[in-house]
Design goal:
binds nicotinamide-adenine-dinucleotide, globular, binds magnesium ion, Ald_DH_C, Aldehyde_DH_dom, alpha/beta, 2 domains, oxidoreductase, Ald_DH_N
């Protein structure tokens, strides 16, 4: 094997301020909260900037601004709202290299992914929903569907700018205004987005960005001036939010965790399936709610598939997220690394067999090598709990019926994958899997026109597509 020469993307293109305020009513404002925290580059532990953890008074000010803006924004004709959203989409495309570098710095994901997956999808989402803004009367929600009002939106750290796009694009297209809280470890692209709103001349107050952690999020979703709550994150926090919103007029959508089965039948094309398994669980370090974290492989081909998978994993490169050759970047935070370690240790102590390719670990930062557990039983924690890291649990099955039973044996239901050459088996399986998305002979594919969301404890409501409009309309 020959070594690749380093091919780092330059970070000169990004301009990170030493500290940020809050973005309220179209301006950067000084917070009332005196709490400030650092956001770091998880690949090096270098401090990137300092952000505010907003308090109740700050959240109140942001919601007030959004309420005031709603009166005018909701009266702007759809064709005019579309122009703003199209403008935002184009600015994102123009600044995509800068945003990709910023995302990789703050999150730890490989530049190859932020450049080729996150950013194109972010722009596509704004383009897609800009197109809906003047066609809402034809969306199947009545002749004149009305917006809800102020949306309070809370997002996680795994796809910071993409989750922002999933939340903000449909909200604005439908005529709502928003207060968005990014995750505490990845606030920088949301703050860059605030600048983009200014660049696009978006009226003040239509988009407000308040940074902070769980308490800020909680203040936002509890605020009486919020009409709609949209949350993406853990099932645990989703439950708290559902409780706090219950009994109020607020409309709620929840996009929560997952423990997806990726099912490989014996007639599947093995090399293609192996690529799909790798993409399913090692894409974005496995920090993917719909990750294919449980591989269900038919017993007759299990050895062949696992041998091929291990050979493939030995070629993955872990390291500097800004290097264009990097396949696996850093784990987003020390806390997430501790969670992955804890569950992996439980896998070993419960009797599963652990394997990782030889993989040098950088001295600084948060890293976890690609890991495969074989001999996993359904009762093991690593088969039941979401690890949210580059860890694959392998189970086997003998018959298609057993595969479906095992796949559905989870409290979650966000996604699933089916690998087979037979169309009939594909459809048979897809109609029996209790999951919001079923991919066949591919995995982790996203398109703004396609609705995404969960069954069971993976949440409710859909984002993307025409379905995604419903969450932001009074229907
Ligand atoms: P988390 O639930 O702890 O945090 C998510 C967001 O909620 C963060 O912005 C956080 O600050 C905020 N938050 C925390 N406590 C809160 C509270 N009490 N009230 C309001 N907001 C609060 O999750 P995490 O560990 O940051 O993210 C990983 C989880 O998110 C995983 O379980 C993953 O499956 C899930 N996730 C789901 C999707 C999806 O689309 N279904 C997408 C990405 C991540
Ligand atoms: Mg960070």
């Amino acid at each position: 094997m020959f070594e690749y020469a380093p091919a780092p993307e330059s970070r000169d293109i990004v301009d990170i301020k030493p500290s940020y305020g809050l973005f309220i009513n179209g301006e950067w404002v000084e917070p009332q909260s005196e709490e400030r925290h650092k956001t770091v580059n998880p690949a090096t532990e270098e401090v990137l900037s300092e952000i505010v953890w907003a308090g109740e008074a700050d959240v109140d000010r942001a919601v007030e601004a959004a309420r005031k803006a709603f009166a005018t924004w909701s009266a702007v004709p759809g064709s005019e709202r579309a122009k703003y959203i199209f403008r935002i989409a184009r600015i994102i495309q123009e600044r995509s290299r800068e945003l990709a570098v910023l995302e990789s710095l703050d999150n730890g994901k490989p530049i190859r992914e932020s450049r080729d997956v996150d950013l194109p999808l972010v722009a596509a989402h704004f383009f897609y929903y800009a197109g809906w803004a003047d066609k809402l009367s034809y969306a199947g929600f009545g002749p004149d569907p009305r917006p809800l009002g102020v949306a309070g939106q809370v997002i996680p750290w795994n796809f910071p700018l993409l989750m922002l796009a999933w939340k903000i694009a449909p909200a604005l297209a439908c005529g709502n205004t928003v207060v968005l809280k990014p995750a505490e470890t990845t606030p920088l692209t949301a703050l860059a987005f605030a600048e983009i709103c200014r660049q696009a001349d978006l009226p003040p107050g239509v988009v407000n960005i308040v940074t902070g952690a769980g308490e800020t999020g909680s203040a936002l979703v509890r605020h009486p001036g919020v009409d709609k709550v949209a949350f993406t994150g853990s099932t645990e926090v989703g439950r708290l939010i559902a409780r706090s919103v219950a009994g109020s007029r607020k409309k709620l959508t929840l996009e929560l965790g997952g423990k997806a089965a990726n099912i490989v039948f014996e007639d599947a094309a093995v090399d293609q399936a192996v690529e799909g398994i790798v993409n399913g669980i090692f894409f974005n370090q496995g920090h993917v709610c719909c990750a294919g974290s449980r591989l269900l492989v038919q017993e007759s081909v299990a050895e062949e598939v696992l041998d091929a998978l291990k050979r493939r994993l030995a070629t993955l490169r872990m390291g500097d997220p800004l290097d264009k050759n990097t396949d696996i970047g850093a784990i987003n935070s020390a806390a997430q690394l501790a969670k992955i370690r804890e569950l992996s240790e439980a896998g070993e102590s419960e009797g599963a067999e652990r394997w990782s390719p030889p993989c040098p670990i950088p001295d600084r930062g948060f890293w976890f090598p690609p890991t495969v557990f074989t001999g996993v039983a359904q009762s093991h924690r690593i088969a039941r709990e979401e690890i949210f890291g580059p860890v694959l649990s392998v189970l086997t099955f003998r018959t298609p019926a057993e595969a479906i039973e095992k796949a559905n044996n989870t409290p979650y239901g966000l996604s699933a994958g089916v690998w087979t050459e037979k169309g009939s088996l594909m459809l048979w399986a897809a109609s029996r899997l209790r999951a919001g998305v079923v991919w066949s002979n591919t995995f982790n594919r996203f398109d703004p026109a396609s609705p995404f969301g969960g069954f069971k404890e993976s949440g409710y409501g859909r984002e993307g597509g025409r379905h995604g409009l419903e969450a932001y309309l009074a229907v």
